[in-house]
């Protein structure tokens, strides 16, 4: 199970924007996994596109977490 798994009890501790990102990351991760299983290839265009989208969302998530930590200081 992913450490970012979109479990309702975990998500409720995040601010709204971050919770949405966690859900989107989980959705993209699942979609990428399913697509890989269908394509049997990590370099299939459809898998690569989902991977790029996932990377962008993870970067967004990391920025939000960093900003929220800096805001606490």
Automatic annotation (TrEMBL):
GO terms for molecular function: protein dimerization activity. InterPro entries: HLH_DNA-bd_sf (IPR036638), Spo0E-like (IPR018540), Spo0E-like_sf (IPR037208). GO terms for biological process: regulation of sporulation. Gene3D superfamilies: Helix-loop-helix DNA-binding domain (4.10.280.10). SUPFAM superfamilies: BAS1536-like (SSF140500). This is Aspartyl-phosphate phosphatase Spo0E family protein. It comes from Cohnella cholangitidis.
